[in-house]
Structures are given as C-alpha cells and as structure tokens.
TrEMBL record:
Catalytic activity: ATP + H2O = ADP + phosphate + H(+)
GO-annotated biological processes: regulatory ncRNA-mediated gene silencing
Database matches in Gene3D superfamilies: P-loop containing nucleotide triphosphate hydrolases
Domain C2H2-type intervals: 27-51
Protein known as: RNA helicase
Family membership noted in the UniProt record: Belongs to the DNA2/NAM7 helicase family. SDE3 subfamily.
GO CC annotations on file: cytoplasmic ribonucleoprotein granule
InterPro entries: DNA2/NAM7-like_C (IPR041679), DNA2/NAM7_AAA_11 (IPR041677), Matrin/U1-like-C_Znf_C2H2 (IPR003604), MOV-10-like_beta-barrel (IPR049080), MOV-10/SDE3_DEXXQ/H-box (IPR026122), P-loop_NTPase (IPR027417), SF1_C_Upf1 (IPR047187), Znf_C2H2_sf (IPR036236)
Organism: Mycena maculata
EC number: 3.6.4.13
Length: 999
C-alpha cells in the first residue's frame, strides 16, 4: 500500500511530473491526511487499523476513558466527556490530568465492530444492523468505489495515456477551445482490440451542456499489438468556472469477444490563473483536533487597566457562575439528549412572569458554556511576547476581524512553554491595536529571553453576562411588558395621525402615513401601556421614525426622560447623531470605558464624558439625572441603574434594532429601570437576522428568538388587529430599486412594501453594460467552482467566485460613465474564509470596498452589492442539503443579503447547489425570467412552479445515484445509493459565526 504524498497535490496545485502517479488520479483520506495513487489503495487503507482507529474517534465507535473506566461513543461525545466536571474530579482524585487521550479498544464488551460503518454495534442489534439503511448505503458506496477503481485501471493489455486535467485556462483560450490528444496502446502480443465508442457521462441524460467534446480521427478502430490510436478531447467554455466529466472508453477484445471499459476523469477550470494561484489553499485541510484545556490550578493575577474602575458603580454585579450540575449536564451527550435533559430537569415547564428569570438565567449559562469552549479555538502556542514597559505586547492573528474579540479590560493567560502544568500568569489587556494587544502582568513575570515561547489562552469577559444576570434577578415582572394580553390594551380608540395634529420635525415623515401613525401612537399613549413595536422591513426608515418619536415625546412632555438603546455602538451612534439638535446638557452618549476615543465619531465627542486619564465615564449623578436623553448600547445601559439612578426615572425606554439583541440584553434597561408607568418602544424586523447565538442548545431552547420577535407572535401584535395600538408596520422602502425589492417583498412582507427611494440613486445603474437586461438591475452569474478549505479552518472558500467578484469590481471601478467609489460597493460572503480570500484578491485593486458577512451588513446599504454564495459541492450523493448549502440555506440571511443593494445587485454562485433550496430556486427563476442570468446555463425549467416543500436535494441525490447506478451496472458491480449525511455541528458553523460586539 502506497502512502506517498505528492506535495503539489496536497498544496492544491496540479502536479507537472509526468511520472507522478497522482497526475491523473488522486484519492485522499482527509481523516489521515494521506494521498493515494488509486482508489484501490484508498480502499485498502480504509480497512487498515490506522484508519479505523481514527475513524472510530470521528464516528460513533466506542472510545475508552482510562480515568473514568467507561466507554464513550464517538469523538464528539468524548470531547464533551473530558470537558465535564465529573471527569475532571475523578482525574484529580487519581492525580491525573483531565486531558487524557482516548483508548481505542479492540473489543468492547457486548459490542461488535462493523468495519464498514466504523462503529461498535451492540450485539443485540448486530443481525439487524446489516439491514439498516445506514449500513446498506455504506456497503453500496464501497461497491461503487470499487467499480470506479476498476474502470479507471488500465486492463487487458490496453493503456490510455495523457493528462486529462486541463488545469486552469484563461478565458480567451477557453472560448476558442483547447485540446489534448490522449493515446490508446495495446501491449499484448497477438491480441486485437476494437474501440467501440468514447462517450461522456454528461451525454447520458444531463440537461447541462458539457465543456468537453471528443473527436475521433481514424475510421479504423482496431488496435493491434504495439500500435497506438490517438483521439482528441476538446474543452471549450464561454464562461468562468469549473467543469468535470467522466470519459468512458468502451473496448472489445475481438479474440475473447468480451467488452470492457476504461474511464478517465476530465477536468477544466476557466478563470484568471494568477487569481487562482494567489488564492489556492495554503495547506491541505486537516480538521483541527479538539483538545481539552487542562485546568488552571495556579493563576498569578495581572494588573487590570484603570478603565475597569472608571464608572462609580454603587450596585454590585452578581458573580453568577455556571452551576456545577448544569455544566456537567452540558458536557455529555448529543445536542438532542442535552436539550431533552435540560427541559426535563432545569428549565421551567411553563414560561410566565414567575418562571421568566429562571428560564433566561439558564439560557445565559448555556450560551456562556459554549462561548468559553469556542474561545479555545483561538488558543495560541509558540507565541512570542515583546516587552515595552510597562506592557508586554502579544500578536493576535484575526484580532482585526474580532476573531477573537478582545477589549480593554479583558484577561489573557500566558504560560511559558516547559513550565509547571496548571501555572499561568494573567495579563490585563490595556491596549488593543489592529493585530496586537498590550498586557500588564504581575511584577514577578519575566521574559528571560527573546527565544522564550508561550501558550496563550483567551478568557471570556463575563461582565456582559453578569449584567444580564443582574437584570434577571430584579423583581420587575409585569405581564403587560413580558406577556402582554388584550386586557392590557385600553379599549379606547388609538389616536390617529389625522387627529393628532403633530408637526413633524422631519418633513419626510409628514407625508409617510405609517411613520406618522407610529410617532402619534408613541407620543399619545398613556403611561404604563404595553410595549409599542415599530415593525420596520428593510429600508423603511425605522430608525428615522424612532428618532422622530423621541423628539416629539421630548417636545410634548417637558417632564419626559428617555433611555435609548441599540445592540451595537454603530446603531447607538446613529441615534445620538440624529438627536444632536439637543444641547450637550440634554443629550448624553455613554460609552463603555473600554472604548477608545478614536472609535467615537468626532461630532459626538462633545456629548460624552471622560475622566482626566481619558477613559469614558459618567458625570456626577445630579448631572446625569438632568439629561433628557441618554443613549447607550443595550449591555451598557446597566450604567444608569448601576450608578444609582432610581427606577422609573426614565418615562420611556426606546430600543432600536431590537431584533438583533437577545431578550436578556434588552431586559438590562427594562427590568432595571422600568416601573409601572414606563413606556417601552421597540423597533426592528423579526424577519431579518436575530442575535448571534453560539450554542446550538441555547438556540434550540429559544435564546435566538429576540424579545421583539416573541412579542410579534402574541395576539395583540397582529399587524391588522393591533395597528396603531401596539404595532405599526412601515411600508415605504427608501432604499432599493423595485426590481431588487420585488422578490423579498413578496416572499417576506406580503407585497406591502412600496418603492420610494431617490430616483437618482436607485436608477443609477439602469443601462449599465454590466446588466444583461438594461432595465433590470440584478445579475446572477452562474459559475461552478469548488468550495475548498485549508489548514485547520473548516470555513469554506471558492477561488473561482472570488476571482469573478474581483472582475466585477474592476469593471465597476473602470467605467467612466457609471462612476462609483469603493465605499459605494459592498461584498457579502457567508463564510469568513471567503471574505479573507476576496480581500486578498482585491488588495491594490479596490482596498476600500467593504467585504463582510451577512451579519456585518445588517442595517447597512450600498449602491452596489455583490454576493458570493461560495458553496459548489458536487458530492450530492454523499452529503445532505444542510451540508451542501450550509449557511446559505437560511431565509433570514437570504432576506438581509438581497435587501442591502440600492441600485445594483450581483449574485455569484452555483445554480445547481443554490437550486436545491426552494427559496433560492424561486429567486433564480425570478432573475432568469427577468433577463438577468449570465454564465453557465440553468439546469431546470425556470417556468416550472417551485415546490415550497422542497425535495430538490432528494431529487438531485437520486439523479446522481442513478448515474452511479447505471455506471456501476455497466461495470458489472453492485448498485449504490447515498451515504449517511454529514452533521454540520457547532464546531464548524461557529467558526463563521461572528463574535458579538458587546461592551
């Protein structure tokens, strides 16, 4: 068995060595990081003890814990087991470290190892196991691999030679066509071989046109001993992207009258060779081994920054540690099992005002448990510290991306390599720069040599969680706020905008009936009303409406005091900037002391308060009480109660972008400051992205459901029944051209949104040469690339799409008629790795273009938006819809992504993958039928009605299985079906889930 590894293949390139066995045919085992010259060698390897031991750890096979003397099923459960409190306690009792390696047992009592499935099967289920769908699917897949290997092998004295991978071809050459000239030779004396046919697998029922064609030259197809036959394969493709096909050559041995097949895989990638070379994987993808942190038994406290004491808090925060029992329950079992156990044992059976605190405190602990473990992903080994008194500077890769998020006041642990296990020094974070942090340690910490290297651990900043626990601990539990019912709504008619006679500060609102009604309803509502919701779909001006309502409340009621919050600093800054008509004695913008002055908009700095040392703080209590409006983030809103401002001081609490905050975050302001008369106003859109929750368990239990979304499901917030009394839906869209707005409007907002944008903006790309239809400002560029991963990051990227995005940016920036700046262009990609690759390929081309995730663009807009959808998997048989589409198949992410553009929307993606999802298929049909499609042809009838129930993934899998079945039958092997779907899991998805910016 060969275990030779070709460096070129592993690095993602094409091997140029003609004698290299990997030149034509490569099989790789990602689990063991080995490459094999044929699928036969790969098949032998998968039965080896080396592979099975690893596979047992990755699958459901049993592992043995030498500490607890128990068996654990699979590596995922093993990671949870060794991270649990019970395991750690038993390890301590025996003087062992918790982070022991699992033992892979040859035999497990009462179980038998199924080598096909790499799982230990209980003896009582052994007979039945062989007839389970999972086992039979794996058996059939193994049979297919054997058939494929048989087809790709030269046989019967016939050899097929040539390089069947065309590599990366520039567009101009691909349009005219490039050729290869393989040869067939016969090395068996006295034999006569007849070439019957050469066909492409795409010719057998595929609706998609192939880039490849075969040309036969010699009419005489008899190949005698020591003779050769040459034929031509031509690759011709009009568009960028990747194509792959199977070439099947059918022979007949005229003496034996037996037919046989030799197959070859054809590949070509059309695109910019330099871009593909720049973006290729830096190293083969090897899943990062999840290690368990050994406990910190001795931590030498560091010097924390003075900013932690900048605010004169008089109300102490609770420590609120995760209960040991809950941590143990979270450490063992599958997500489904843990959720069931938590519902049964920890969470109240009914959520009401009495059980509210207990419910959400547990959800906070569950999320914190996951956040702690996600931080382990950023642990650094071999780190170097640079001393510049009084600080030690540490380079933190990904810091600028908030991966990890580090703020002034955080703690980072360092341990000199080779020192006593468990002994760590704590460094207080005093300085945060683009890629480095400045730490202060205890005076006993010394860097003795420039060659010293350190292990680094990032510790979770628990202050945001503790502030939420403080809110949950308060006794404000009013049903009219938490669980409003019709009986809480006054029966008197709500005031209408026609009868209120309010003169709008913003003249645009005076002509917008829904906005004006929302303002009137807020201004005229009686103290102690139910929360009022401004339901603001994309681009409808919900923040403008909220600001107008704040100004009207202040103008109408001289005793009004307002606390205005938003989930992020950028959103809070927007509120404050639009309230600057008020003086510095009336408006106060509070920033957390961890925030730097350079992060604050210049125009708002006069509305802040800083101590002599430069750290943001609050003025004396008497002055704080005189401010008519205080603006902060949701988490920082705890400052007002923390410094002693009494409950009920604020007559109104406003929360903008409320759908992006968790319910406990919103409750920091409400539960600590509201009384029986406080009115609450929320603005947001539950149909856009909710808060970022890292724990799949917490998401399942409801933490991802925001407060505004939960309210909107209650009877009194029905858009028609509650109009004007509890909710107003804004319907005039001021952002997008109607063609861009039309599809999300119909699918998410009942077609109620109206185009009201500035014609000079939304029509600015009509007639552009980029458009396929000059009056339709949407382009879908159909491209088949390859979604890659590299090194230890499970995040996906697609070189073909990144290069195509660059081409669009270059085209946009070079057009002198349709002038545009970098700041007018936004690029959205669902995977962090793709964002990095696109930034790399745009470096020096358009450095000012913002490239980010869907979450980073929520609430924003650009004249032009380009979306790279990334996923282009062709493993339809092996993977399920969730794995193939990943983050892309999420309606809210879709809604946010396609509603950011004002004048031009460009989507780059693989239609065969996107079309598996009914929502995407309907959107692609809309674009195709409107004349906005370019690139490779659509592979289905875009006029067919889309089945909202889905099933397209199953149909595609069935088609792929049919092709494999037919091929296997032709090879006289067993038929095949699919294999088990791959579980996406939290470990992968959280790499691309941004960290929330909370202070």
């Amino acid at each position: 068995m060969s275990q030779t590894v070709c460096p070129q293949v592993l690095s993602g390139g094409a091997c140029e060595n003609a004698s290299c066995p990997h030149r034509h045919n490569v099989c790789s085992c990602e689990l063991c990081n080995l490459v094999f010259a044929s699928s036969a060698e790969y098949t032998v390897h998968t039965s080896s003890k080396q592979h099975l031991n690893k596979a047992q750890g990755e699958s459901g096979a049993m592992l043995h814990c030498p500490v607890c003397k128990k068996y654990v099923s699979g590596m995922k459960n093993w990671t949870q087991h060794v991270g649990g409190a019970r395991h750690a306690a038993r390890a301590a009792e025996n003087g062992l470290q918790p982070g022991v390696d699992p033992e892979v047992p040859e035999n497990v009592p009462g179980h038998t190892l199924c080598s096909t499935c790499s799982s230990h099967i209980p003896d009582r289920n052994w007979t039945r196991h062989h007839f389970t769908p999972k086992h039979m699917e794996r058996e059939r897949f193994v049979s297919f691999r054997a058939a494929l290997d048989e087809a790709e092998r030269d046989k019967n004295g016939v050899s097929v030679s040539g390089n069947f991978d065309f590599g990366i071809v520039e567009g101009r050459a691909a349009k005219s066509g490039i050729e290869i000239h393989p040869t067939i030779s016969n090395v068996t004396p006295s034999s006569k071989i007849s070439l019957i046919s050469i066909t492409l697998s795409s010719e057998k029922g595929s609706k998609t046109k192939s880039a490849f064609s075969v040309i036969l030259h010699d009419p005489s197809r008899t190949i005698r001993y020591n003779t050769t036959y040459s034929f031509t394969v031509k690759a011709r493709q009009e568009y960028n992207g990747r194509d792959e096909n199977r070439l099947e050559i059918l022979f007949e041995d005229l003496q034996l009258r037996k037919r046989f097949i030799i197959a070859r895989i054809l590949r070509v990638t059309v695109g910019n060779r330099a871009d593909h070379e720049l973006l290729k994987p830096i190293a083969p993808y090897v899943p990062r081994k999840r290690t368990t942190r050994q406990p910190e038994t001795n931590i030498v406290e560091g010097v924390l920054p003075p900013s932690l004491k900048a605010v004169p808090y008089v109300v102490p925060l609770p420590e609120a540690p995760i209960p040991n029992g809950l941590a143990a329950a979270l450490s063992t079992g599958t997500t489904t099992d843990i959720v069931a156990n938590l519902r049964r044992s920890y969470l109240p059976p009914i959520l009401d005002s009495n059980t509210y605190p207990r419910h959400f405190k547990h959800l906070l602990w569950i999320e914190e448990y996951r956040m702690e473990r996600d931080l382990e992903h950023y642990d650094i080994s071999q780190a170097k510290l640079t001393a510049y008194k009084p600080f030690h500077y540490l380079d933190v890769p990904g810091l600028a991306e908030k991966r990890p998020s580090v703020l002034v006041g955080d703690r980072i642990l360092v341990q000199k390599q080779g020192s006593t296990p468990g002994h760590w020094f704590e460094g207080g974070v005093h300085v945060v720069r683009k890629e480095e942090v400045g730490l202060r340690f205890n005076a006993s910490f010394r860097v003795t040599s420039a060659a010293d290297r350190y292990n680094v651990r990032f510790k979770l900043n628990r202050y945001p969680m503790r502030r939420q626990h403080l809110a949950m601990d308060t006794v404000f539990l009013e049903d009219r706020v938490l669980f409003p019912l019709p009986l809480h709504v006054p029966r008197i008619p709500y005031p209408t905008q026609a009868s209120a006679r309010i003169k709008a500060f913003n003249p645009l609102i005076a002509t917008n009936t829904p906005q004006l009604q929302a303002v009137v309803s807020i201004v005229k509502r009686v103290p102690g009303s139910v929360p009022f919701v401004i339901f603001g779909p994309p681009g409808t001006g919900k923040t403008v409406t909220m600001v107008e309502a704040i100004r009207q409340v202040l103008a109408t009621d001289p005793h009004a005091r307002i606390l205005a919050c938003a989930p992020s600093n950028s959103a809070a800054d927007l509120i404050a900037a639009r309230l600057m008509a008020w003086s510095v004695d009336e408006l106060f913008r509070f920033y957390a002391p961890s925030r730097g002055k350079d992060q604050v908009p210049l125009e708002l700095q006069n509305y802040t308060y800083a101590r002599p040392d430069g750290h943001f703080s609050v003025p004396p209590l008497a002055r704080m009480k005189r401010f008519r409006v205080v603006v902060s983030t949701c988490v920082s809103a705890s400052v007002v109660s923390g410094i002693g401002i009494p409950r009920g001081h604020y007559t109104h609490i406003f929360v903008d972008e409320a759908g992006q905050a968790t319910e406990p975050e919103v409750m920091i302001a409400i539960k600590t400051m509201a009384d029986t008369k406080t009115n609450i106003v929320l603005s947001g859109d539950p149909k856009q992205l909710g808060p970022i929750i890292r724990s799949a368990i917490a998401r399942e239990l409801g933490l991802e459901t925001s407060y505004i979304e939960r309210l909107m499901h209650r009877e009194i917030y029905d858009e028609k029944k509650g109009y004007g009394a509890s909710v107003v839906k804004l319907t005039k869209n001021f952002r997008s051209h109607n063609a861009i707005l039309k599809f999300p409007n119909e699918h998410f907002y009942k077609g109620e949104l109206q185009q009201c944008g500035d014609a000079n903006v939304i029509n600015s790309y009509l007639g552009s040469p980029i458009l396929l239809c000059k009056t339709f400002p949407i382009v879908f560029h159909a491209i088949s690339g390859k979604d890659d991963r590299e090194a230890s990051s499970p995040s996906f990227f697609n070189r073909a799409e990144a290069s195509q995005v660059k081409a669009y940016v270059e085209s946009l920036r070079s057009n002198r008629r349709f002038r545009i700046t970098d700041n007018d262009i936004g690029i959205i990609a669902p995977y962090h790795a793709q964002c990095l690759k696109i930034r790399a390929v745009l470096r020096g081309v358009a450095d000012g273009v913002k490239v980010g995730s869907v979450e980073e663009f929520q609430g924003q807009e650009r004249r032009v938006i380009i979306i790279s959808t990334v996923r282009s998997s062709r493993e339809f048989v092996e993977y399920d819809l969730k794995h193939t589409l990943g983050f892309v198949a999420n309606p809210r992410r879709f809604n946010v992504a396609v509603t950011r553009a004002q004048a031009l929307l460009i989507v780059v993606g693989d239609p065969d993958v996107l079309g598996l999802d009914p929502l995407w298929r309907a959107f692609l049909n809309y674009i195709h039928n409107s004349g906005g499609w370019t690139g490779r042809d659509i592979s289905w009838d875009p006029l067919d009605e889309v089945d909202e129930g889905g099933g397209y993934d199953r149909a595609t899998r069935a088609a792929a299985q049919h092709d494999m079945n037919a091929f296997t039958r032709r090879m006289e092997a067993l038929t095949i079906a699919g294999v088990e779907a791959v579980d996406g899991g939290d470990d992968d998805t959280n790499v691309d889930r941004p960290w929330r910016d909370v202070e």
